[in-house]
Structures are given as structure tokens and as C-alpha cells.
Write a structure and sequence with these properties.
Layout: H1 2-31, H2 34-63, H3 70-77, H4 82-109, H5 121-131, H6 146-150, E1 171-172, H7 205-213, E2 214-215, E3 222-227, H8 228-241, E4 272-273, E5 286-287, E6 317-318, H9 327-330, H10 334-340, E7 357-358, E8 361-362, H11 401-424, H12 430-458, H13 460-466, H14 483-487, E9 500-501, E10 517-518, H15 527-530, H16 535-544, E11 546-548, E12 556-557, H17 558-561, H18 575-585, H19 591-597, H20 606-612, H21 616-626, H22 634-640, H23 651-666, H24 680-688, H25 691-698, E13 703-704, E14 719-720, E15 751-758, E16 761-768, E17 772-775, E18 779-783, E19 786-787, E20 793-796, H26 802-832, E21 840-842, E22 848-850, E23 894-895, E24 903-906, E25 911-914, E26 921-925, E27 930-934
Parallel strand pairs: 2-12, 23-27
Antiparallel strand pairs: 1-6, 3-11, 4-5, 7-8, 9-10, 13-14, 15-16, 16-18, 17-20, 18-19, 21-22, 24-25, 26-27
Helix pairs in contact: 1-26, 2-4, 2-5, 4-5, 7-18, 7-21, 8-11, 8-16, 11-12, 11-16, 11-25, 12-13, 12-23, 13-23
């Protein structure tokens, strides 16, 4: 039977491949769609432009073994997770297609009395569908099970059942005010040199940095109240709730100019212009800058599906969930979550570093080999200029040591909690333990942020005004992170970053073997932690050294404005200029518009401005550059304001941050204080916990401040860990009522169950382990007579593993594909007497590969498709350790074994992997990331 099934599959696949060209050619005849046919060629050309721009520069960067430039490092840190990358690519294809269609429409109507650049609703619908954007513009289907109500989904979707996209990953940032674009829907402020605001052009952002923001490293005022950990927590939490990936393309659409080389504004390139007197010796006229990825279906000046305004301006995408849900630990997509989990553990643990330990404690694992090696290499390894970065729930975990320290701390805390919960509840499955530990870690993130962090930033009065006490879940509150919060207000923390990384010994003194590092020496350097004494010296430095104080004439130090991401002396970046340019890229309205939004008076005159900014010299410099108060960028205006009492922000940012935090809390169905999330006893235990207790439980420190954010002197301001309260997990011990007819649930061999409640009744949800099939009811409910059904069985499926079936099917398709190609070649030879036009690609191992004929990417000539040119965008890949393609939905494919030979043969539906010259390989498709894995 098995052999017959395999043979059947082979025949079906071969016939499908053989007859597909006929089906493809006849589809219009059978169910013709003239509009679709009209758009198809535009879509194909747009895909070619986007994919060429996307892969060309990235592949060149990956091939180089030299030290990366700062711009490349920033680009790698802003790379979207694969799911986000697919959506960003679809959005760029849609945007490029719409622009191309508008040009076609305008050409046809240029002699008309009433030309238009708006496209019909039907045409936009077709473009959205064919570009791949449509699925990401529609509301998701929400599961209605007790588990869906017990554990928050990893993507954040369906938190609000009436608005299932609110707060979900890979959706648009919220707009609290309409955006300001120079063409009304897409072009950033400052895009057109002649464009005037209140009669004046906007000043170049680099000029603003040089004259208003920048200060030398030596001129830094220490915060007399708060520790460096306050700054680090703000950055860490920012990475929990917001990540706007840069454009997936790295070169201009159409023109093909590399964004790292051009100084012209060509989408997605929006370079930061440098004044002549401030250019480096090499004469570079600009700093590279990529626009943020757009959300699907935005950036169009025309109606869309009838439910959006006629002017549908560009919106930027948030690749993370908006919620305070510890996505820094667990990720915001199923694919990343699977990478992070330890699937061999019965305790629901997260993966840790396979080789290195920190006095017996875990380190973060390294990212898999297929990820870009963008970090500093291990010291003492000759010939290596780059090494792997850490793998965490957020891709920026390796940026600076303080971020790495907090990511490491919470990895350990999850595994500590999971092991303890499993010991309390031996009957829990690995998944139940993982989800319960994740729930606790998420709650602790919420508690530390809203109870301990935000009040210190806003000050007590503003906290009461904008946040206030929790009054329960509000289904009308939209928790989606706003564009102005992510792009401006919460970036106030950049002005609190100290230029030095401090590492202290056990007595909280300067470490004799680990001197302080300038920040630029520690960017993207995992070995600062791994070979720098482990986590403890960094945590001591964060606890016992002050943050930089945000002073109006000392806003940002040179480590950030002159040496950002420097691993060499080749070039630099400027974080302040990037922040200003990003605000313009996102179309943020000016400073006064946001003051009015918050109920604050507009500042119209120099005298008005001086009331908000005590430093007269700073106020004068701002007006001298911007000429008019309405022109001031919101990030600069908010950053320069006088602090509120007992706060670390001024009135504007206190308003914007406070409104956002209230929305994140009140609009979250899984907020820890919501009555259905934890029991009363569990909430009481959670309230006892603190960041200081997390440090005690997961480091070698034995004394800590009671308040980790309050800077103190050692030892007088430090307490023994024995006196720091924490959670008693006894409140999580699961017991079952003895007076009902159900009793303790029966376990299932080769399966697990999770307990939850539905309509006040106990429910069990069963699942089988890999390789086993559930027979019986998945969900059992406790009734007055007992469980309503018998427990299911988990039986060996008796089938070949899924991966084997996929391999067999795809191998059959490969055979059919080659048969079809051979037939085509023979037909052409016999009918025309000419040589085949199919390109032959050398694999480097001596095995020739046939090109994909009509499926080869447009614009890729056979002459360029060689083994030496791994930048080819096409459907048949040479012998490579990394390759790319335009016909598959994902963002890239690689052989997981360096140098492993792979052939990727694309058809309209499938991707086939084979290794003709050595060993057996099968296709491992991980959420749009296909790989050739050893069999």
C-alpha cells in the first residue's frame, strides 16, 4: 500500500508539472479575468524590482568577511524576523505596483481634461491580492477555546475579539494625529529640497545634532537619583513593545542605487545630508538611511476596499506585539518562538548556550548559522572578522551589553520558574509548564514597568493624571503602540545613556581586570559578556553606577552621535540624526501640534519657547535652525523641555508616554490584574516580586538595593538577598476538587493535557506527542456525572513521518519537472532546429543544473547566472551555502551545512531540495525559511 501511495503521488505530481503550462496558458480562457491579466505584468516587474533591491546589497554584505560598516550593523539589527520580512516585501511590491499602475493610467489620460492618479477599488483589490498583501489586511480568525482564553497568543492577535488586529504583531503603528507627508500620502518631511514649512525649509538633521544635541563624552552629568538600570530597563521595554523594521530592500527601486552609496532621495533611500564643512576626509556627502517598512495597503492616494479614507497615507509596521508581554523573551511569531524553546525538555525550558556557562548559569544561545554573522568575533580566533550574535525574543539583544544582560537575566528567570513549577505539578506537560512560566514572566514585566519604572519617568502628578489606578479591562481602549510614542517620545531614553560601560567587582568597585569600556567598543560584542567575567560585573555596574542625566545643553554624548556602532575607523553613524530623520520618515507632525494634542499651550514666540526650555542658549539655537516654532521636530522639542517635578521627562513626553502606558494596560485582556488571568492568591504573590529579587535569583549577587532603579552606595544602601521578598509558587500548585465526580484526570500514554476552565466548568484539552495521532475527543468537560467522554488515545499514526512524505512528494515533483523541461528542450530542437535557450549553471562541484526556463527571474541573464555570482535572483540555485529566490514566499534559504550542495527547483507551488553529489538531504521548511537539512 505504501509503495502504491508513493507511486500515485509521483504520477500525480509529474502529470501536474507536465500539464501546468497548458493550465497556465488556458486560465484566462477558462475563467478569464482581464483586470488580473492587466495587472499581472506590472506585479511581476514590481516583484523583480523589489527583490533585486532587497537581495543584491544584502548578499554582497554577507559575502564580505571584512568588518561591517556601522550602517550595515544598524541594518542587520533592524532586519525583520522572517514573518515580518514576508509582509514587508508584500507591502513594497504593492506600493511599487500601485505607482507603476498610476503611471500607466496617467499616460492614458494625459490628454484627458480630467486626469487622475487615483486607482479604482477593483484594481487596488487585485493588486493587494496578487502582491500577497491581502491576507495581512484582513482580520484574523480567532479561536474560541478555553486555551485561547487562558494563554495569550504569541502574535498578540485576538486579544480584543471585536478588534482582533489591535496590538498584534506585523500591523500598523497607531496614529494619534494624521501624518504629515509632503505629497500628502508618502513622501517624508524634508524629502523635497524646495518644500517650505511656514516659509522656511526644514534644517538638515545633522546640523541640528551638531548645534543643539551633541556634547563631548567628558561633559556628562550623572543622575543623582537613578541608577543606570533605569536607562537599561527603558530600552529593554521599548524592545518589548515596538520594532519598526527598515525596508527589506537595500537599494532604490527601479534605479537600483545602493542606499549605502547614494546621496539622493530615492525610495527606500532617505540619506542624511552632511554639510560640506562637517564631511569626513573621504568627502562623503551623506550618511545612509533606509526608510521604515510600510504596512500593507498604505501609502496610496486612492480608495481601498471602500472602508478606508480616499487618502490612505503610508503607515509604518510594528513587527512586535504592542503588549507588555515579554516578547523580548519569547518572540512575537510562532517561528521565532519555536526557535527559542528547548523541545527536548519536559520542563518547558528555553534554549541556552550549548557550550559556555557562567559559574554554572546559562547564557543566551547563539543565533543559528543561517542568520547573518554581524557581531564581533571571539577574541583570539585568527582570520575571523565577524561572529554570531545572541538569539533572543528580540533581534537587538546583542546591540549593547546592558541589553544583553537583561535578556540573559530573564532567560534564566523563565527556566528557574519552569523548573520550579514542574516540580510542583508533575502532571503538567512541557507545554503547560512553558505557558505558565511565560505567563508569570509577562506579569513581572508589567509590574516592574507600571509600578516601578513609569512613575519615576513621568513623576507622581503626571502618572496620576495620565495613567492612574487600574480600573479593569476596557474593550474600547486600543493598546496598539502609537507612531509618536515609538518614534519620538520613548526615545527620550537616548539622552540618558552613559558613554561608559561599567563593570564592577564583588565589592562594587572598579574591576581590576575589567576596566570600563567606551560604548563604541562594546557594540554588537557578545564576548564582552562571555569573556568579560559573565553577567555579574555588568549587573553590578548597572545597579551601583548612575545613569546620565538628561540636561538641556548635554543631550547626547559623542559615543552616540559620532561613534554609533563603530567596530572600525571606516565610518560612523549618528543616533540623534537617525531619530530626527526617522520622525520625518514617519510623517510625524511638528512639536506644537503634539503640544496642542496634549492640551498644552502652543509656543509661538521666542518668549513662549523659553518658558518650556529654561536654557536660553538652547532655545535660541533651536529657533535659529528651525526659524519657526511649528517647524521643530517633536523628538527634539520634547527632549529639550524642562523636567516635571520628580520626573525625568517634560510635560509633552509625560503626556505621550502616560497615554500609551494606560492604553497598553487597560486595553490588554491578559493584563495581570484582570480577574481571569491569575487567582487572588497568585496576584498577591506577584505583587511581592521585584527586579531586585530577579537579580538575586539569577546571578551570584548576594546583596542588592531594595529598589533596583535607585542609585545607592555599597554596602550601606544594599540589602541581603535573604531579606528581598519574592513569589511563593505554592499558589500555582494545581489541585482538583475531591467532591466532584471527575477527580484527577487520567494521563494518556504518549500524550499530554492542559487544564483550563470554560463557563465555570473544568475542561481538559489533550494533545499527542510528535509521531502520534489523537483518537477520540480532544476536549473533555467535567459534568455532574463525571467527564463527559473517555480520555482519547494517542496511537502511532502508522504513517511515514511528515518530513518523509514531503521529501517523497517533492522528489517526485523534481522528476516530473525535469521530464517536462527535457520535453520542452526536445520539442524546441525538433521544431526549430536551434539550440536550447535554457541556461546551464555550474554548481562548483561539477554537476550541471538546468535553469528554470520561463520561471527564471526577469532581468537575470544566463551569462550572469554562474556559480561565482551568488547574487542571482532566480529559481534554480547554484552550489551555495546561502541563496535567494523570488518565487518563494519567504525571505531567504540556506543550506544548514556549510557548503552542502543543494538544488532548488521552483514550480508554481513547490520548492524541491536535493543533493546530487553528496549525501541525502530533505527540505526543512520553517515558516517561509526553507533549508536543506542532512537526512
Amino acid at each position: 500500500m505504501r509503495a502504491l501511495a508513493v507511486l500515485s503521488v509521483t504520477l500525480v505530481m509529474a502529470c501536474t508539472e507536465a500539464f501546468f503550462p497548458f493550465i497556465s496558458r488556458g486560465k484566462e480562457l477558462l475563467w478569464g479575468k482581464p483586470e488580473e491579466s492587466r495587472v499581472s505584468s506590472v506585479l511581476e516587474e514590481s516583484k523583480r524590482l523589489v527583490d533585486t533591491a532587497m537581495y543584491a546589497t544584502m548578499q554582497r554584505n554577507l559575502k564580505k568577511r571584512g568588518i561591517l560598516s556601522p550602517a550595515q550593523l544598524l541594518s542587520f539589527s533592524k532586519l525583520p524576523e522572517p514573518t515580518s520580512g514576508v509582509i514587508a516585501r508584500a507591502a513594497e511590491i504593492m506600493e511599487t505596483s500601485i505607482q507603476a499602475m498610476k503611471r500607466k493610467v496617467n499616460l492614458k489620460t494625459q490628454q484627458s481634461q480630467h486626469p487622475t492618479d487615483a486607482l479604482s477599488e477593483d484594481l487596488l483589490s487585485i493588486i493587494a491580492n496578487m502582491s500577497g498583501c491581502l491576507p495581512y489586511m484582513l482580520p484574523p480568525k480567532c479561536p474560541n477555546t478555553c486555551l485561547a482564553n487562558k494563554y495569550r497568543p504569541i502574535t498578540g492577535a485576538c486579544n480584543n475579539r471585536d478588534h482582533p488586529r489591535w496590538g498584534a504583531s506585523n500591523t500598523a503603528l497607531a496614529r494619534w494625529l494624521p501624518p504629515v507627508y509632503e505629497d500628502g500620502f508618502s513622501q517624508p518631511r524634508g524629502w523635497n529640497p524646495g518644500f517650505l514649512y511656514n516659509g522656511f525649509p526644514l534644517p538638515p538633521v545633522r546640523e541640528v545634532t551638531r548645534h543643539v544635541i551633541q556634547v563631548s563624552n567628558e561633559v556628562v552629568t550623572d543622575d543623582d537619583r537613578y541608577s543606570d538600570l533605569l536607562m537599561a530597563w527603558g530600552q529593554y521595554i521599548d524592545h518589548d513593545i515596538a520594532f519598526t523594521p527598515q525596508s527589506t530592500s537595500k537599494a532604490a527601486f527601479g534605479g537600483g542605487a545602493d542606499c549605502q552609496m547614494t546621496c539622493e532621495n530615492q525610495n527606500p533611500c532617505f540619506p542624511i545630508q552632511l554639510p560640506e564643512e562637517a564631511r569626513p576626509a573621504a568627502g562623503t556627502a551623506c550618511l545612509p538611511f533606509y526608510r521604515s517598512s510600510a504596512a500593507c495597503g498604505t501609502g496610496d492616494k486612492g480608495a481601498l476596499f471602500g472602508n478606508l479614507s480616499t487618502a490612505n497615507p503610508r503607515q509604518q509596521m510594528n513587527g512586535l506585539t504592542s503588549f507588555l508581554d515579554a516578547s523580548t523573551v519569547y518572540g512575537s511569531s510562532p517561528a521565532l518562538e519555536r526557535q527559542l524553546r528547548n523541545w527536548t525538555s519536559a520542563e518547558g525550558l528555553l534554549r541556552v548556550h550549548a557550550r559556555l556557562r557562567d559559574s554554572g548559569r546559562a547564557y543566551l544561545p547563539f543565533a543559528p548559522p543561517r542568520a547573518p554573522a554581524a557581531c564581533a568575533p571571539e577574541p583570539g580566533i585568527p582570520g575571523e572578522t565577524r561572529g554570531p550574535c545572541f538569539l533572543a525574543g528580540d533581534g537587538r539583544a546583542s546591540e549593547v551589553p546592558s541589553l544583553t544582560a537583561l535578556h540573559t537575566l530573564w532567560l534564566r528567570e523563565h527556566n528557574r520558574l519552569a523548573a520550579a513549577l514542574k516540580a510542583l505539578n508533575a502532571h503538567w506537560s512541557a507545554d503547560a509548564v512553558y505557558q505558565e512560566a511565560r505567563k508569570v514572566v509577562g506579569a513581572l514585566h508589567q509590574i516592574i514597568t507600571l509600578r516601578d519604572y513609569v512613575p519615576r519617568i513621568l513623576g507622581p502628578e503626571a502618572f496620576q493624571q495620565y495613567v492612574g489606578p487600574y480600573e479593569g479591562y476596557d474593550s474600547t481602549a486600543n493598546p496598539t503602540v502609537s507612531n509618536v510614542f515609538s518614534t519620538a517620545a520613548f526615545r527620550f531614553g537616548h539622552a540618558t545613556i552613559h558613554p561608559l560601560v561599567r563593570r564592577l567587582d564583588a565589592s562594587f568597585q572598579e574591576h581590576p581586570d575589567l576596566p570600563g569600556l567606551w560604548l563604541h567598543q562594546a557594540f554588537f560584542s557578545p564576548w564582552t559578556l562571555l569573556r568579560g567575567g559573565g553577567l555579574d560585573p555588568l549587573i553590578r555596574g548597572l545597579l551601583a553606577r548612575p545613569a546620565k542625566l538628561q540636561v538641556q545643553d548635554q543631550l547626547m554624548n559623542e559615543e552616540l552621535t559620532e561613534r554609533l556602532f563603530v567596530l572600525s575607523n571606516s565610518s560612523t553613524l549618528d543616533l540623534a540624526s537617525i531619530n530626527l530623520q526617522r520622525g520625518r520618515d514617519h510623517g510625524l507632525p511638528g512639536y506644537n501640534e503634539w503640544r496642542e494634542f496634549c492640551g498644552l499651550p502652543r509656543l509661538e514666540t521666542p518668549a513662549d519657547l523659553s518658558t518650556a526650555i529654561t536654557s536660553r542658549s538652547v532655545a535660541d539655537k533651536i529657533l535659529d535652525l528651525y526659524k519657526h516654532p511649528d517647524n521643530v521636530d517633536v523628538w527634539l522639542g520634547g527632549l529639550a523641555e524642562n523636567f516635571l517635578p520628580r520626573a525625568r521627562t517634560g510635560p509633552l513626553f509625560a503626556c505621550l508616554i502616560g497615554k500609551q502606558m494606560k492604553a497598553l494596560r487597560d486595553g490588554d485582556w491578559f493584563w495581570w490584574e484582570n480577574s481571569h488571568v491569575f487567582t487572588d492568591a497568585q496576584r498577591r504573590e506577584l505583587e511581592k516580586h521585584s527586579l531586585s529579587r530577579v537579580i538575586c535569583d539569577n546571578t551570584g549577587l548576594t546583596r542588592v538595593p531594595v529598589d533596583a532603579f535607585q542609585v545607592g552606595k555599597f554596602p550601606e544602601d544594599f540589602e541581603s538577598c535573604d531579606s528581598i521578598p519574592g513569589v511563593n509558587l505554592e499558589a500555582w500548585r494545581e489541585t482538583f476538587p475531591q467532591d466532584d465526580k471527575c477527580g484527577f484526570p487520567e494521563s494518556v500514554e504518549n500524550g499530554d493535557f492542559v487544564h483550563c476552565e470554560e463557563s465555570g466548568r473544568r475542561v481538559l484539552v489533550y494533545s499527542c506527542r510528535h509521531g502520534y495521532e489523537l483518537q477520540g475527543r480532544e476536549q473533555l468537560t467535567c459534568t455532574q456525572e463525571g467527564w463527559d467522554f473517555q480520555p482519547p488515545l494517542c496511537k502511532d499514526s502508522g504513517r511515514l513521518p511528515r518530513a518523509t512524505w514531503i521529501s517523497i512528494s517533492l522528489a517526485a515533483l523534481l522528476i516530473g519537472g525535469f521530464a517536462g523541461l527535457t520535453s520542452t528542450v526536445i520539442c524546441r530542437w525538433t521544431r526549430t532546429g536551434t539550440k536550447s535557450t535554457l541556461p546551464i549553471l555550474e554548481t562548483g562541484g561539477g554537476t550541471p543544473e538546468l535553469g528554470c526556463g520561463k520561471h527564471q527571474a526577469i532581468g537575470t541573464s544566463p551569462q550572469r547566472a554562474t556559480a561565482q555570482d551568488s547574487e542571482q535572483v532566480g529559481h534554480t540555485m547554484p552550489h551555495v551555502s546561502s541563496c535567494h529566490r523570488s518565487g518563494w514566499a519567504g525571505s531567504g534559504c540556506r543550506s544548514s551545512s556549510a557548503g552542502a550542495p543543494c538544488i532548488f527547483l521552483f514550480t508554481p507551488w513547490f520548492l524541491v531540495c536535493s543533493a546530487p553529489s553528496s549525501g541525502r538531504f530533505y527540505l526543512q521548511a520553517n515558516d517561509n525559511e526553507p533549508e536543506c537539512e542532512p537526512a
